[in-house]
């Protein structure tokens, strides 16, 4: 599923136009992204938690040349599904 599919489903479920739905979906995605960036964590009950994780600097190898390179430390987003979401996926 992609954003376009999600917009169509939200429009149908809520009885609104796809244009209105796109505005809603975009606002939610933007709010989650902003929350992760500013707060470091966004928890949505029954769905899961988005958070940031710090990755340490490390050494890696260029696959073409075999040269060792330094990969700098960085902060990356992570998602952990809630127990409810995980169970619903496994029930099929």
TrEMBL record:
Gene3D superfamilies assigned: IHF-like DNA-binding proteins
Family matches, as PROSITE patterns: HISTONE_LIKE
One example GO MF annotation: DNA binding
Classification via SUPFAM superfamilies: IHF-like DNA-binding proteins
Keyword Transport in record: no
InterPro entries the UniProt entry points to: Hist_DNA-bd, Histone-like_DNA-bd_CS, IHF-like_DNA-bd_dom_sf
Name of the protein in its database record: Putative DNA binding protein
Keyword DNA-binding included in the entry's annotation: yes
UniProt lineage: unclassified sequences, metagenomes, organismal metagenomes
Pfam families: Bac_DNA_binding
Protein source organism: viral metagenome
Keywords from the UniProt entry: DNA-binding
């Amino acid at each position: 599923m992609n954003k376009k599919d999600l917009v169509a489903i939200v429009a149908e479920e809520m009885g609104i136009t796809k244009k209105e739905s796109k505005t809603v979906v975009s606002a939610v995605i933007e709010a989650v992204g902003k929350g992760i960036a500013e707060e470091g964590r966004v928890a949505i009950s029954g769905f899961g938690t988005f958070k940031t994780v710090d990755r340490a600097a490390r050494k890696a190898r260029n696959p073409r040349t075999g040269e060792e390179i330094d990969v700098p430390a960085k902060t990356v987003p992570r998602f952990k599904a809630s127990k409810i979401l995980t169970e619903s996926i496994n029930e099929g």
